[in-house]
Specification:
- The protein is built from four helices and six strands; from the N terminus they run αααββββββα.
- The chain is α+β, with helices and mostly antiparallel strands.
- It is elongated.
- The protein has a six-stranded antiparallel beta sheet with strand order 1-2-3-4-5-6, covered by helices on one side.
C-alpha cells in the first residue's frame, strides 16, 4: 500500500470518528427534549387537569371547617366528584376558558342538608390557569348573596 492511499484512509477514519463523537453532533440532534407549545390545546388541557387536582387538595380541608351563624354550625365536604370543560376563546391574552364543577355535601349542625356544587371559571394566560370566579350553586342556581354563610366570600376563601 502506498503512502498516499494510507494517508487517505487515515483521514477518512479520523473524519468518521470525529463525526460520531458527542462533541461533533449538533445540540438539537443529540437532545431529544420535545418542547410542547404552552398554548396548544393538549398543553392547556394537561395543565387544567393539574390545576383542578391542586384546587381539590386546597379546598377539601377548608370545606370541613365549621362556620357559625345564629344557632347553626355549617360545614361541607367534597363528594369526590367533579367535571370540567375547556373551550377556545377569541382572546389572544386568554386563548382558553375552563370551567370546573366540584360536587359538595352541605351540613347544618352535623346533619346532612343537601348536595350542592362549587362552579369555577378560569382563564388560561401565559401557560397558567388563573381563577376568575367561584360560586356555590344550590339547585342549579348561584348563591350570590354576600351575607350568605356559603356565599361568595366563603367560596373565594376556599381557593386562597
Amino acid at each position: 500500500m502506498s503512502y498516499k492511499s494510507f494517508t487517505g484512509i487515515a483521514i477518512l477514519l479520523m473524519m468518521a470518528a470525529c463525526s460520531n463523537s458527542p462533541s461533533a453532533t449538533s445540540p438539537t440532534a443529540s437532545s431529544t427534549v420535545v418542547q410542547q407549545d404552552v398554548n396548544s390545546p393538549a398543553s392547556a388541557r394537561e395543565r387544567f387537569e393539574v390545576r383542578v387536582r391542586q384546587d381539590i387538595e386546597r379546598i377539601t380541608p377548608k370545606l370541613q371547617e365549621e362556620q357559625r351563624q345564629s344557632n347553626y354550625t355549617y360545614r361541607a365536604e367534597y363528594s369526590g366528584t367533579y367535571s370540567y370543560d375547556i373551550q377556545q376563546s377569541n382572546s389572544i391574552v386568554s386563548p382558553f376558558v375552563g370551567v370546573a364543577e366540584y360536587r359538595i355535601r352541605w351540613y347544618a349542625n352535623n346533619r346532612y342538608v343537601q348536595d350542592m356544587s362549587i362552579k369555577t371559571r378560569y382563564v388560561y394566560q401565559d401557560g397558567e390557569w388563573v381563577l376568575k370566579e367561584a360560586l356555590r350553586y344550590i339547585d342549579g342556581k348561584p348563591d350570590t348573596d354576600p351575607d350568605s354563610i356559603g356565599g361568595p366570600r366563603w367560596v373565594a376563601s376556599l381557593f386562597e
